[in-house]
Amino acid sequence: MNVLIVHAHPEPQSFCTAMMARMKARFEAQGHSVEVSDLYAEQFDPVAKAADFAERQNPDYLVYALEQRHASKTGTLPADIAREVERLKCADLLVLNFPLFWFSVPAMLKGWIDRVFLSGLVYGGRNFYDRGLMKGKQAWVTFTLGGREHMFGPGSVHGDLEGLLSPVLRGSLGYAGFEVLKPFAAYHVPYIAEEARHAILEDLDLAVDTLHNRGALPMPSLDHFDAQMNPLANGSVR
After folding, report:
1. Whole-model pTM above 0.85?
2. Which domains can be identified in the chain, with CATH numbers?
């Protein structure tokens, strides 16, 4: 299996970075091939902009998705995007590893999705959810956060983590067609003792070892909707 870990933490000595290194070593010990996109270390530019396109299809008005399609077809993608796209195309499993910032991913990682999830390659037209162009690949989100575990879930102060991360779990990964595995959360990381950190890393080892049994998050099927995306009367939404 080819694994791509997209890591987005600005501190090389962070626990989040330790999680990335731990997963890389564990996957490799199982015989998998692992590529790491360390976005901060590689100084990835997260800003989607007109300058991303050297040869514009429409030089007068920027529609980013349409210019992505044009640049992909003409082989004129910027070198940094082209590199990440090739990494993504080769991956059977995409792992997004990051610290939770304001109930979301860091801007660096959001920018990676914006620039690398190309229209026409990852999604486009009716190619989304179970018809997304990444169908057949898996995605897994692993992250660190400062909150305690009891602060998340039904009836908790912050609500359910999977709902909180819906923009990336459903709106990005699921939309693109990935089978989205249940996420792995490392709670209260800035405040716990070294022993507790070791325990989290051991839990992460186990999660990697049993990834085939982790289960996937439910996503919609377009079979349950008509051409205008109205729910079918005799269908159901998963």
Report:
1. yes
2. 2-224 (3.40.50.360)
